[in-house]
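Two proteins follow. First one:
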Amino acid sequence: MQRGSGSFLTPVYIASFLYQASQNIYGPFLPVFAATLGASYLQIGIIGLAGSLIQVPTSLVFGRYSERLPVKRLMWLACVLAASTIALLSLVQNVAEIVGLLFLVGLGSGMFWPTTDALVSEVAVSQPREKVLGRYSASWGTGLLVGPLLGGYVVTYFGYRGVFLVSAVTLSICLATVLLRITPHYSSRPIRKVDRPDPTGTTVGKRPNRFAVAALAVITSFLLGMIYLIFPRYAASLSITPIQLGYLFSTYAVTRLMLFFMSHRVAMVGIVKSLGLSLVLLAIAGAILGLASNFYVFLVAFLILGVSAGIEIPLIMNLYARTNSGKGMTRTMGIYETVTGAGIVSGSFSGGAISNYVSPAVPYLMTAVVALATFPIVVVAGRGDSSSERSVPADEQVPDPVHE
């Protein structure tokens, strides 16, 4: 089976869904669980920082040296590490133990996501990139939908510790998918580049501005990280129940998922216009979250937030993939994961510190201001480099290095 075939991509999509679902079965409820152990807002920010802090350098290392590493083994090793570590979370007794275990979870994610990002991105070289990346984003986006709903009911009927065990079981199913459906069919043959027209107006020879795209990825992940990692504790203080919290995050996921499926059409509108709209929506959602205290108003805010994320995530990922200069797609996507991880690290810690020392509502109001101030970066990132290279026929192009 060749990597470029749909039959290869399908189990990759399934594994991405299962891995993401496992993280979101327990993720939205971990801050509330930590609060039951006496964690402050600042400590919750540190908890959010812990996993991403190790994931950032790990993603960079595995992205940088993946051509020399046994890629076939990385995904299943990541699943084994994450499943065993999350199962141990059911036994923790204090915040320090949570932080220590989350470092290991971050290590697993740092192995898993650069590998899957690169597999899908390399296949997308010979197919409409937005369509392939949109389906990939939809696969792990579905995990965002299923995970919180399932987690909310597990917490309600079995307690917070039970949610970690359910997450570990989900990762075990992901491991079986990787071992049975991906690693046996991984082809080490290079995939040839195809110089095909693109609806966004960015060609293979006209690469976007890497620094602008990286800055945009950091800022948006910073803002989303602040909301995702700090909001559960804030919501619990406003008497939002675990099931309601699950519905909020699932509403965010389902709207984001719908936009993922339409990412190819969204790209046709134009990068600058689409990303500009997503920032306006992000600002509106942040303002609502900072001013509201009612479940149904929060529901509207999370719906708007989902539309915003559904527009920006595939487009930013696509832009960064196009900055690849022939040094290997896994390396490029490893750097992308590092960049977004850096945003999440700084966002979670900043959100926790601001909530602890200023006010729990301030991070969301700050999100509205920062989102609107990001427009100039969107213009630069969407415009891309004006110096285009000669369009090279497919039979003349040199394939990227492929991971062993």
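Second one, unrelated to the first:
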Amino acid sequence: MSLEVQIKHIMDNLENSSSDEILEIITKILPHFRSELTTDYLHGKIQKITNNADESEKKKQCLTLIPYFEWYLQGL
């Protein structure tokens, strides 16, 4: 399954997508961002979310990363 299809699948099923699935896709698209500032920011967000033990809080934080999926789909 291509990265674009995976992103669309998660965006269509946000309620049923786990934080791990969202973080996996964010990690896959990181190299495509041109700005080092953006990639550094996302690395920090991923680390913060990963360190959180509460799954509902992780999911809530992951949902704030969805605009990066949209950027990727639009060609960055």
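SUMMARY FIELD: Residues 3-73 form one domain. The chain has a mean pLDDT of 93.
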